[in-house]
Write a structure and sequence with these properties.
With about 230 residues, the chain is an alpha/beta fold. It has one domain: 3-Layer(aba) Sandwich (Rossmann fold). The chain is about 50% helix and about 15% strand.
């Protein structure tokens, strides 16, 4: 049975870093809609220009664009045995579309990473990303350590690029992003909460502890999904 995981949580909850770590450990792709959109901006595509204006205002890209991007990505061969989605769905409409996309691909395992808002603001104000490859500092360090790349202060372990503050992490934009999250994305938790494959993880702990709790939560949800389908947990 495919391991289909989505990670929910507000900006700054650590979804990207934890998704990268978990996906690498399980041998499935981490699919970050943020990475896909930033690549479109970097490449100067038509959609990239539209996305840049929206992201710079701290707003969310519309459901139709996001759903199309994810649908195309999930059709690739490497995602057939499972995936970790980071940044999608962000609205209930996107969640409904995702349910339709994976009707014949097994259950969704939903992990909600919970962090107090005061901690989110503190984290986001100091968050850094690689100017060259777009990885956030924690994600770049995780990938680099796995690849055996030597660390250098202020540099990305993945590619060696300089670490800089994200344009959408300025103070005003941070607060706007959290406001948008509470208004539009938080209802996702209510949409998924009653599912037996929904789990919450305390994201205010040290990263290694969060990773361990996340592994435990996913495995528990997967066992429930396997039992419901009549399969045998692996």
């Amino acid at each position: 049975m495919a391991l289909n995981v989505i990670m929910l949580g507000p900006p700054g909850a650590g979804k990207g870093t934890q998704a990268e770590r978990f996906a690498h450990g399980r041998g499935i792709p981490k699919i970050s809609t943020g990475d896909i959109l930033r690549k479109a901006v970097e490449d100067g595509t038509e959609i990239g220009g539209l996305v840049k204006a929206i992201m710079d205002r701290g707003e969310l890209v519309n459901d139709e664009v996001m759903t199309g991007i994810v649908r195309d990505r999930l059709e690739k061969a490497d995602a057939r045995s499972g995936f970790v989605l980071d940044g999608f769905p962000r609205t209930v409409a996107q969640a409904v579309a995702l349910d339709d996309m994976i009707l014949d691909r097994g259950s969704l395992l939903v992990i909600d990473i919970v962090v107090p808002e005061t901690e989110l603001v503190r984290r986001l104000a100091g968050r850094m990303i690689c100017a060259d490859c777009g990885a956030n500092a924690g994600e770049a360090a995780e990938s680099g350590s796995l690849a055996g790349t030597k660390a250098h202060p202020g540099r990305c372990r993945r590619c060696g690029g300089a670490l800089v503050q994200r344009a959408d992490d300025s103070n005003g934009v941070v607060r706007e992003r959290l406001k948008v999250y509470h208004c539009q994305t938080e209802p996702l938790v209510e949409y998924y909460r009653r599912r037996p494959t929904f789990r919450s993880v305390n994201g205010a702990q040290p990263p290694d502890t969060v990773a361990t709790d996340l592994e435990t939560a996913v495995d528990a949800a997967h066992r429930v999904a396997m039992a419901a389908s009549g399969g045998v947990p692996r």
